[in-house]
Amino acid sequence: MKIIDTHCDALLKLQLAKRGSFFQQEPLNFTDSEALDTNFQRLHAGGVKVQFFAIFLYPDVPSDEKWQHALEQVDLFYTEVLGKNPAMKHIKKWEDIDRLKDNEIGAVLTLEGADAFGNDLMKLRQLYRLGVLSIGLTWNNANLCADGAGEPRGGGLTLLGKEVVRLNNEHRVFTDVSHLSVKGFWDVMELADYPMASHSNARALRNHPRNLDDDQAKAMFAKNGLIDVVFCLDFIKEDTSKVTIPDLIKHIDHFCGLGGVQNIGIGSDFDGIGAYIEDLENASKFQNLVNELQKRYSEEEVAGFAYRNFLEHRPGIQALRGIDNGRTSEKQSEVGIWQKR
């Protein structure tokens, strides 16, 4: 079964390795490096059809270097991910997903934290032009747009942050809530046309500030937002000495119980985690998750979690597919790569 994964940190690993090469370390090869959970060979083996690649900067990167660090990761996306792997195709607009051929994997560029552009909206517009299709306003720290989930102050969106959400709406770009403070989350719910939690789990099962509580989850579902479950062990259960695929599925079960069966997806956080769910250690193992889900859910529901819910909640999907009064246009029926096979 095909997979859409809405979060990985391969670009950061590629950047750190390239910078480390100045100290006699070898840069990583995206095609087959064992150090990358989401290298091309593993994506192909795991049935991944679309992989999201985050631009992420550590908070200790000096302010005057953040834009350069972000551009380095964008450059690696173009040169290493796309440039050396012809089957990787850049998804520059949501319609491009429907044009992928059977042997191709879509690559989506995202931004995890607005630190990269500071208060310079010209830089933000440049990121849109470079193909960024999802923007999380924060990582765990605070910045000029909002407070993150780890910021003790717990503030919401600033005026700048609200303007970024407005621009995301205008450009049909997701606003990612996964790392926001609780107040920031609710500010986004008031403003965003396209909310998504790219990698978060259920706080009712694991009381962690990076997870969403039931009221937040219900608000996401009410706005047709996506919640993509994450493989980080500490977001799944308190005892991380052994975490299994059924432990992760409990979070899917919980969200389904809140009415979100059509709003759940996958946001692995591969290459951003250092410990793994048993039998789900890298992108080549995705079908192990699919197989376990099929023991509990219908084929249609599992396909929803794996890829279809995302396709149905892409920004502007009604305009793209011509859905009218519950009827599907001929254009939609022509999209063949997503059929069960």
Helix amount, in percent? Answer: 25-40%
Shape: globular
Residue fraction in strands: 5-15%
Q: Radius of gyration, Cα only, in angstroms?
A: 19 Å
Q: What top-tier CATH class fits best?
A: Alpha Beta
How many domain units? 1
Name the CATH architecture: Alpha-Beta Barrel
Record field, number of beta strands: 9
Pfam families: Peptidase_M19
Enzyme class: hydrolase
Protein name: Dipeptidase
GO molecular function: dipeptidase activity
Describe this structure in words.
Keywords: Dipeptidase, Hydrolase, Protease. InterPro entries: Metal_Hydrolase, Pept_M19. Its EC number is 3.4.13.19. This protein has 341 residues and is an alpha/beta fold. It has one domain: Metal-dependent hydrolases (TIM Barrel, Alpha-Beta Barrel). The protein contains twelve helices and nine strands. The chain has helices at residues 10-20, 40-45, 66-82, 121-130, 159-170, 182-191, 214-222, 245-257, 286-293, 299-312, 317-321, 330-333; strands at residues 3-5, 48-56, 88-90, 105-112, 132-136, 174-176, 195-197, 226-229, 264-266. Strand 6, helix 6 and strand 7 form a beta-alpha-beta unit. The longest helix is centred in the N-terminal third of the chain and has 17 residues, at 66-82.
Helix and strand arrangement:
Layout: E1 3-5, H1 10-20, H2 40-45, E2 48-56, H3 66-82, E3 88-90, E4 105-112, H4 121-130, E5 132-136, H5 159-170, E6 174-176, H6 182-191, E7 195-197, H7 214-222, E8 226-229, H8 245-257, E9 264-266, H9 286-293, H10 299-312, H11 317-321, H12 330-333
Parallel strand pairs: 1-2, 2-4, 3-4, 4-5, 5-6, 6-7, 7-8, 8-9
GO molecular function, one term: dipeptidase activity
EC number: 3.4.13.19
Enzyme class: hydrolase
